[in-house]
Amino acid sequence: MSTKSLPLTPELHAYLVAHGSAPDEVVRGLAEETRAALPAEAEMQVAPEQAAFLTFLTRLLGVRRAVEVGTFTGLSSLAIARGLAEDGRLICFDISEEYTGVARRYWARAGVQDRIELRIGPAADRLR
Fold first, then answer.
1. Which DSSP string do the residues of 30-81 spell out, in sequence order?
2. How far apart are CA 28 and CA 30, in angstroms?
3. pLDDT tens, 18-29?
4. Contact status, residue 34 vs residue 42, Cβ threshold 8 Å
5. Whole-prediction pTM value?
């Protein structure tokens, strides 16, 4: 159950899949729902192995504050929020209530909704 959305060599992709964490029920559900409901746009979603790597890096670096521009259905934000320090905060910017509605449901399922602040509107107008 792997989609490869960034250009990786076949060897690097195989290594990530073989040595990374398997997607849990929440990640699998989100990835499957996104592919089923939004097949033309689903390539905007990070692959499950990339999400696991985001969680790992966020945790390894002890990230307390993060910003995401372009949330889509929320897999990368879910991954970042899971890796944040205990008092960490993620601010997400997106323009779609529809797509981020999916994200909000999965953030709640994963129990990370309290770490994420979603700001709807053009990020260029709101980043400051």
1. HHHHHHHH-TTTGGGSPPHHHHHHHHHHHHHTT--EEEEE--TTSHHHHHHH
2. 6
3. 888 789 999 999
4. yes
5. 0.88
